[in-house]
Write a structure and sequence with these properties.
single chain, mainly alpha, 2 strands, 2% strand, globular
Length: 242
């Protein structure tokens, strides 16, 4: 039971900060926050993503490119141009690293106001940090695992952020339903997104990229947006008015 709770905590904790911070804040800037809160959120993203930590700078720019070039050869991740999900993941990883390390030229429109904390990212993305988290996960499993099958959950802990990414960027462009006919393959994965906290409403998001709420229909409950509304109510962040 402890292992299951641990994986669920990492799954939904990492997913929340990916959706809340990397996606809706860094890439789309649908709300603002103080510099102190921004730095705190960097740290919490590192804690919950652990060994698969993603930089807000690299993620934010790459995601803006995905919206600008959806389902074209310039799209950083597209089932339309990648042979399989593993090829797409490898391509995404390479482009992300090149952006993060500033090895490729990026149009200024993609970098505007993207949050960056170079010193922290250098540590959080380092081999030392990732090995530290991997060691912690293995020791945690060694102490709390009570059955052999629980060890098969360890790769999920190690690769949490890429797993979240491939669910949306691969399956969210192949399976599901659409509310809006668009010139791309984006789809809504679930009628009620219990798995991805609102990220599964991918077709809605491509239609209304600047909206903080990814749900459109009554049954499309966006849990991340509900948390954002609470944080806005308590003035921890400030939602932008559309």
């Amino acid at each position: 039971m402890i292992i299951i709770l641990f994986i669920l905590t990492l799954w939904y904790g990492g997913l929340f900060f990916q959706s809340f911070f990397l996606h809706r804040y860094a890439a789309h800037q649908v709300f603002t926050m103080s510099k102190f809160m921004e730095r705190m959120t960097f740290v919490f993203t590192w804690i919950f993503q652990g060994s698969s930590y993603l930089s807000a700078y690299g993620y934010g720019i790459m995601h803006r490119m995905h919206h600008a070039y959806t389902d074209t050869e310039k799209d950083p991740h597209s089932p339309s141009y990648d042979a399989n999900l593993f090829a797409m993941m490898w391509k995404t990883k390479t482009i992300y690293q090149d952006i993060n390390d500033q090895k490729i030229a990026v149009d200024a429109k993609f970098t505007k106001n993207v949050p960056q904390w170079k010193t922290f990212d250098a540590f959080a993305s380092s081999r030392f940090s990732r090995l530290l988290w991997i060691t912690f996960y293995i020791l945690f499993f060694a102490y709390f695992a009570t059955a052999l099958w629980q060890w098969f959950l360890l790769p999920i802990a190690l690769l949490m952020a890429p797993i979240h990414g491939v669910i949306i960027n691969w399956f969210g462009h192949i399976y599901g339903y659409v509310n809006y006919k668009m010139k791309n393959t984006s789809k809504n994965l679930f009628h009620f997104d219990f798995l991805m906290m609102g990220e599964g409403y991918h077709n809605n998001h491509h239609k209304h990229a600047s909206s903080a709420n990814f749900g459109v229909k009554w049954h499309e409950v966006d849990v991340t947006y509900m948390i954002i509304k609470v944080l806005d109510f308590f003035k921890i962040i400030q939602l932008k008015k559309n």
